[in-house]
């Protein structure tokens, strides 16, 4: 994972399937979960079912104009949006920003530029806040993907990092397996509750090294506790 990049869940609204597959694959390389919607109707269904950290929104879609969709979303949500547009006119770009877009990128675009714009938008929305989270005597930094307790550094894989961030940002809160599946995996990934049990088990062993415990709440889910 790149330094200074948090683990996120994205919604990509794009009807060009070839481009969509390429964007999803590229973003997923950094461990992010990405859901893809080919129409505004599908995007609405996704937004009704899950919370997203960032939306990548095409302008011209089979069932409407992405800018109108964006304007309607701004009445109910502050989720950051980057508009993907083939239009290069300044008026088109200004219009997207006026309707609530946080940024835009013109097609065809370089994937490195798209990733950089995503990071910039998320940093601005985060307000430059400190990202370190104290877990007992340990310090978890989801931005840099590190978990340290003094001189001890715990090695965490991408999914484990994402799972720990979900728990760490909700201290004491019971999280069901369904909620964890929603945060860890995109809709097109075939997973079961047993998969969550495996990842929780792996993370639990590593957290034991720094005195952090994931408690099983029978019939309800899991919650994080610190020694």
What is the CATH class designation of the largest domain?
Alpha Beta
Total strands: 13
Proportion of beta-strand residues: 15-25%
Work out the helix count: 8
Provide the CATH architecture of the largest domain.
Answer: 3-Layer(aba) Sandwich
What would you call the structural class?
Answer: alpha/beta
The percent range for helix content is: 25-40%
Number of domains: 2
**What is the third-level CATH name, the topology of the largest domain?**
Rossmann fold
Elements, N to C (H/E): EHEHEEEHEHEHEEEEHHHEE
Q: Kindly report the name of the CATH homologous superfamily of the largest domain.
A: Response regulator
Shape: elongated
Low-confidence stretches: 1-5
Q: How are the strands ordered across the major sheet? A: 2-1-3-6-7
Largest sheet: 5 strands, parallel
Mean pLDDT: 86
The radius of gyration is 19 Å
Question: End-to-end distance, in Å?
Answer: 29 Å
Layout: helices, strands, pairs:
Blueprint: E1 9-13, H1 17-28, E2 33-37, H2 40-49, E3 54-58, E4 60-61, E5 64-65, H3 66-73, E6 81-85, H4 90-98, E7 103-106, H5 111-126, E8 133-135, E9 138-141, E10 146-149, E11 152-154, H6 158-168, H7 177-184, H8 193-207, E12 212-217, E13 221-226
Parallel strand pairs: 1-2, 1-3, 3-6, 6-7
Antiparallel strand pairs: 4-5, 8-9, 9-10, 10-11, 12-13
Helix pairs in contact: 6-8
Give a description of the structure.
With 227 residues, this protein is an alpha/beta fold. The protein folds into two domains: 9-126, Response regulator (Rossmann fold, 3-Layer(aba) Sandwich), CATH 3.40.50.2300; 133-226, Orthogonal Bundle (Arc Repressor Mutant, subunit A), CATH 1.10.10.10. The protein is built from eight helices and 13 strands. A five-stranded parallel β-sheet has the order 2-1-3-6-7, with helices on both faces. A four-stranded antiparallel β-sheet has the order 8-9-10-11, with helices on one face. A hairpin with a 2-residue loop joins strand 4 and strand 5. Residues 1-5 have low confidence and may be disordered.
């Amino acid at each position: 994972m790149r330094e200074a990049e948090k683990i996120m869940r994205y919604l990509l609204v794009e009807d060009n399937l070839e481009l969509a597959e390429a964007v999803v694959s590229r973003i997923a390389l950094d461990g992010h979960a990405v859901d893809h919607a080919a129409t505004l109707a599908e995007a609405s269904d996704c937004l009704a079912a899950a919370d997203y950290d960032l939306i990548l929104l095409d302008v011209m879609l089979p069932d409407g104009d992405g800018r109108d969709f964006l304007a309607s979303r701004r009445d109910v949500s502050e989720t950051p949006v980057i508009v993907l547009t083939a239009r290069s006119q300044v008026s088109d770009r200004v219009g997207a920003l006026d309707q609530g877009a946080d940024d835009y990128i013109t097609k065809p675009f370089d994937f490195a530029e798209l990733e950089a714009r995503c990071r910039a938008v998320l940093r601005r929305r985060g307000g430059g806040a400190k990202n370190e989270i104290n877990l007992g005597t340990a310090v978890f930094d989801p931005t840099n993907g590190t978990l340290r307790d003094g001189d001890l550094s715990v090695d965490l894989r991408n999914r484990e990092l994402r799972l720990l961030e979900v728990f760490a940002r909700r201290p004491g809160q019971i999280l069901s397996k369904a909620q964890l599946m929603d945060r860890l995996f995109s809709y097109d990934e075939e997973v079961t509750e047993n998969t969550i049990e495996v990842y929780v088990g792996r993370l639990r062993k590593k957290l034991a090294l720094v005195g952090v415990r994931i408690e099983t709440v029978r019939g309800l889910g899991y919650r994080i506790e610190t020694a």
